[in-house]
Amino acid sequence: MPKAKATSKKEPSCTGTVAGKRKTPAKLGHLYVKRFPDISTLTPGAKRDRAKHPHDCMVDYAPTGRCVCKMCGDYIPRNQLRYVLMVQCHKGYKSACALHRECFVEHPESYKLEMRDEVLMDARVLEHEADATAAWKLIDSVIGEGVNDSKAIKDE
After folding, report:
1. What's the pTM value of the predicted model, to 2 decimals?
2. Which PROSITE patterns match (predicted)?
3. 43 and 60 in contact (C-beta within 8 Å)?
4. How many CB atoms are located within 10 Å of the residue 103 CB?
5. What are 91-100's pLDDT values in tens digits?
């Protein structure tokens, strides 16, 4: 009798490799934060989607280790803070774009956030004061830099 091949599950690692293959970051050139400021132009489905997800950014803990950062392509380990930008397609539907802390700062769409009200902080994050403080500091720095960049552009 032929031997049955042993199958082993590869655990996701933070390096972004599974079974020896490197995951590549998604191409997000067509997805933007706050693509449609006027909701009257949205389709009925996109309006329902916007009502379900009124925020533009979300901070929570990664529930599993399978979430992939859309900038670098590496896995976000379980129970690590992840920053999720709610990006919109050309029809107005929102999609989640999960990012590491470092990648969130580098993502060009993160600088479209204008105030804290656009960010949904998970209740579990708020329970841990150190994580909540670190997350708000990062969000505030992104919001502040975005405002400063737009002022610099207007001045030029």
Report:
1. 0.70
2. ZF_PARP_2 (PS50064)
3. no
4. 21
5. 888 888 999 9
